[in-house]
Amino acid sequence: METQHFSYDNKIVKFFAYATILWGVVGMLVGLLAALQLAFPIFNFNLAYTSFGRIRPIHTNAVIFAFVGNGIFTAVYYSLQRLLKARMFNDRLSWIHFWGWQAIIVSAAVTFVLGITTSKEYAELEWPIDIAITIIWVVFGWNMFGTILRRRADHLYVAIWFYIATFVTVAVLHIGNSISLPYSWIQSYPVYAGVQDALVQWWYGHNAVAFFLTTPYLGLMYYFLPKAANRPVYSYRLSIIHFWALVFLYIWAGPHHLLYTSLPDWAQSLGVVFSIMLLAPSWGGMFNGLLTLRGAWDKVRDSATLKFMVVAVTCYGMSTFEGPMMSLKWVNSLTHYTDWTIAHVHIGAMGWNGFLTFGMLYYLFPKMWNTKLYSEKLANAHFWVGTLGMIFYALPLYWGAIVQTLMWKEFTPDGLLAYPNFLETVTQILPMYHVRVLGGLLYFSGLFLMVYNLLKTAASGKCTDNEEASAPAIVTDTKRSNSEGLHRWLERKPVQFMILATVAILIGGAFEIIPTYLIKSNIPTIESVKPYTPLELQGRDIYIREGCNTCHSQMVRPFRSETERYGEYSKAGESVYDHPHLWGSKRTGPDLAREGVPGGKMYKTNVWHFNHMLDPQKMNAQSIMPKYPWLIKDVLDTSSTPAKIRAMTTLGVPYAEGYDQIANDDLKKQAEEIAADLKKSGIEVASDKEILAVIAYLQRLGRDISVQK
Q: Which parts are annotated binding residues for Cu cation?
C-alpha cells in the first residue's frame, strides 16, 4: 500500500491555544468582578458600563464561547488531524474560523457593555452577531467534514463522533433559538413569546450546556486522557452506548429548568423523565474515562496533567448526577432560583471544562514545542490552588442556597411568613458571598501559574508549525462484511453518521416544541391581558438593557410561600405579548411578577421606585442592588418607538392599525402623568427621562391579572 507524506498544521492549534489562555484570563477576571459586585455593591462603580447586569453576560459568554470555545477548537484541530491522518481540509478556512471567532467574541463584549442584549440565557447576542456565528460555524463544519472525507484512517474514533454531534446540534440549537425580527440595524425581538419563548430558550439553554460544554469535551476526554495515561479507552462498547444514549436523551431535558412555571405539565414531566434517564449514559462516560486509568493510577501521583483530567472527569460525574437530582420536582422546589444552580453550573465550568482544558494545555505545550514542561511543581501548585478555589467557591453557595430557600418557605406558628422582607434572606447569606470571592480569587490566581509555566515551556523549545507525517492511503469499502458490527460499519460512513446523529437530536425537540405551538390549550388566552403601552414597552427594553432579569424573576410558582409573599401565581396566558419572556433563573432580588398590582403584596409607589433606582442603599443600607443614576439623567430615545410597535404588530401583538404613527403621543402623555405624580412628592424630573419608562413598566407588572379578578 502506498505511503503518503503530508504535514499537520500546528500553527492554527498554537493560535487557538493562545486564545484559550487569553480569554480564560479575561473571562475569569470579569467573573471575579461580578462576584465582588454581589458581595460589595461599590464595585459596580455607579457606572452603566460596569454594572452587574451588563458585566454578568460578558463573564458567561467569555467563559463559555471564548475560553471553552477556543479550547474546543484547540482540541479539535489538534486531535482531528492525528486521528484522521490528514491535514485540515483548507488552511484558509482554518484562519477564517480563527479570526472570525475572535471578532465575534470582541463584538459580544462591546455590545454587552453598551447594553445591547436579547436577555436570552447564553444567547444574549443580537441578530447581526448571530448571523456571523452561523457563518463561522459553517466554516468550521466545512473544514472539519472536508478533513473527515479525505482521511487516511478507515474508521472514525469515538472522539470524532462527539465532534460531529457537537457541530450539527449547536447549528440546530443556535438557528432555532435565534430567530428574531429586527427593528433596527442592531436590535430585534424574538419571534417567540411567553411560554413558547421559555420552552425554546431552555431547549437551547440546557443543550448549549450539553452540546457545547459537554459533548466536545467528552471528545477531548476520549482523546487526551488515554494519550496522557498511555492507555487505551476502557470500553469501546460502552463508548457506543454512551454516545448514542447521550445525544438522544439530552435534547429532551430542557423543560426541567421550568418546573412549577406556566409551562404545560406534560412538557415539564417529559423534562423530568429524560433528565433522570440521562444519569445512566453520563455516568457510563465518566466510568469509561476513569477506568481508562486502570493500571496507571501511579502516574496520577506524579503527573499534574493527569490530576487535572481525573478531577475534571470526576466533576463531570458530580454535575451529571446533580443535574438529574435537581430535575426532581421536590428537589427543584427547593433549589430553583437559589445559588444552588450557580454552584452546580460552576462545578461543571470550573471543574469539568476548566480543569480538562488546563490538563490538555499542559499535555499539548511540551508535545508541540518538542520539550519538557518547564515546571511540574508549578503545575501541581496550580492544581491544588485551583481545587481549593473550586471548593471555596461552590460550598458557600450550596450552604447559602439551603439557608435562603428554607428562609423563603418558613412560616410562624400563626401561619405568617417568618421572613416577609426578601432582603432579610439576602443579608443572611452575604458571608457566603464573601467566601465565594475568595474561592474565585484562588482559582483565578492559579491561571497565572499556568500562563507563566506554559510560556516558559514554549520559550525552551520550538513549535513546528508544519509537522511532517506519513500514513498509508486507504480505500474505504462501502459494503458491510458479515463479520463486521453495524456500528463499526457506520464509523466508515461519516455522512450517514452525521444524518443519524441529526435525527437523534431532532426528535426530542420536535416532540416538545411543535405541540406547544399547534395546540392552543397549552396557552389559554386571558381576555384582560393587553399589549404594553409605548412607554411601558420602552421601559421593558431598558429593564432588559440593564440586565435586571438577571437578578429578578417574573414567575410566581404555585407554592403557598410564594403566593403569600408575592401574590397570585403566574398564568400561561399573561405573557403572550412578552418578546422575550422574562421568567428568570435566579432571585438575588424578589420576584416582580406582581410588582404593579395596586394594593398588592409587592406594590410600591412611583416615588419609591424612583428613589430605589437612584440609590438602593439609601432605601436600605444592606441592599446589594446597583445604583442606576444614569436613568435619571439620560433622555429616553423615542425615535425607535414606531419601529418597535411595527415589529410587535408583525409578531402578532394587537396594536391598532397605524398606531405606530401616534404611539409617541401616548408615550409622552403617560410620562407626563408619572412626572407630575413625582412632583407632588418634591421630585422634579423632566418627562423625557428613561427612569419614567422603567417606572411605567414596573407599575404594569401583574395589573392585567388583577383587572381580571
A: 206, 256-257
